[in-house]
Amino acid sequence: MQSLKAAIRNFFLLPEKEINDSRRLHFVDGFRALALLLMVSTHGFKAWIEPSLWTGTPLLLKNYATRIPGAVFFFLVGVSYIMARDAKLRKGLSDKGVLLSFFKRSLQLLIFAYLYKAIDLIFGVPWKYINIWLVDVLNIIAVSLAGIALLDFLRKRLGLSNTFWPLAAIAAVAVEPFVFWLHFPAWFPDQILWYLQGVSPNAYFTLFPYMGLAVFGSAAGEILTKREFDRPFLGLSKLALYPIAAAIFFQLFALVSPFDQLKIERIAYFMKGLVLLLIGLWVSYHFQKKIGFGPLLILGSYTMIGYWFHAKWEFVYYQKALFKMDWSGAGWLLLKTYITTIIVVLAYAKIKRQIIKRKKR
User: Residue 307 — φ and ψ, nearest 5°?
Assistant: First the structure.
């Protein structure tokens, strides 16, 4: 009985040695895994449920729940950047070398974003139905990563403190209305313009304000990597004051501003979102300490595979179910999607670990 309890505990809770390992913040992987699981369900229900069934409480939940996963992913891009940057610096890379390595990584992600759409050809989707230039979450993540690396490089060159990060994040969010008011020349390529002023069906995300979430994640990452977990709110309470103050300012500014009130209020809305992301980190940290994410930590380490697979499974494999299912039918499809996605990710992680072991030998 005692061995069974120990096995269950080890399945969900990491050994103390791993928890105290400053090189890895496991609860960040757990937080990312929860975002992926929520994305799977929101994508599935949005894709399968008959439009007439979206009324009342389900519609309200849809409008809010669909915004959470993307925000978490953008935020954790910034957190992960700081951890990866520090690892590269420990290996002896120069600041310029770090910048170039992240530019390379950003380009790889951008290429993957376009291949992700083009690969629908394998599933028999006619080319005319593939919106190859669509600006989606992965496109903006790729560009945001390059932007963060460049900001960090300039910050160090100018000798700016880490206070730069939350201020830059607020600026990246606040600039959105002004970017949409800009008039670009007719010759400016639409495929690039959609990154700045894109709307559906050509863009689901734009560089501003979403890069602001990633930049704010960098501010959180600078604190988290110092392991100040004994302080209230994961040592992030002071960081939360920046978006709280900005939210109050823009909410009041919207009352007297000559600009579009809804656009200014949207800035305040994003500021509140930044605070909620910090709270999400706090909850994830304590959940990892007391309960543990278990195998979800593996899922959180390979969200790219999970993102790719679940989307193709839901939108292509189950394309005959698009907008035709009731809640019961969609629930069964979602269960199958969860099972297959988790199996695929765990199998990928296992194979990758085996390959790494062979290379070391």
Answer: -65, -50
Residue 155 CA to residue 16 CA, distance in Å, equals 36
pTM: 0.92
What secondary structure does DSSP assign to 231-270, as a single string? SGGGGTHHHHHHHHHHHHHHHHHHHH-SS-HHHHHHHHHH
Helices (H), the chain: 2-12, 16-19, 26-48, 56-65, 68-90, 95-118, 137-158, 164-174, 176-181, 190-197, 207-224, 237-256, 261-290, 296-301, 303-312, 327-360
**Cα 328 to Cα 96: distance, rounded to the nearest angstrom:** 54
Q: Record the tokens describing residue 276, joined without a space.
A: 């909620």
- Residues in CB range of 220: below 8 A, 6 or more apart: 75, 78, 79, 236, 239, 277, 278, 281
Rounded to a whole number of angstroms, the CA Rg of the chain reads: 21
Phi, psi of 325 (to 5 degrees): -100, 155
Judged on CB neighbours under 10 Å (0-12, 13-18, 19+), 125 is middle
Predicted confidence (pLDDT) per residue in 203-235, tens digit: 999 999 999 999 999 999 999 988 776 677 788
DSSP 320: G
Chain center to CA of 59? 23
| Tens digits of residue pLDDT in 176-206 | 988 998 999 999 999 999 999 999 999 999 9
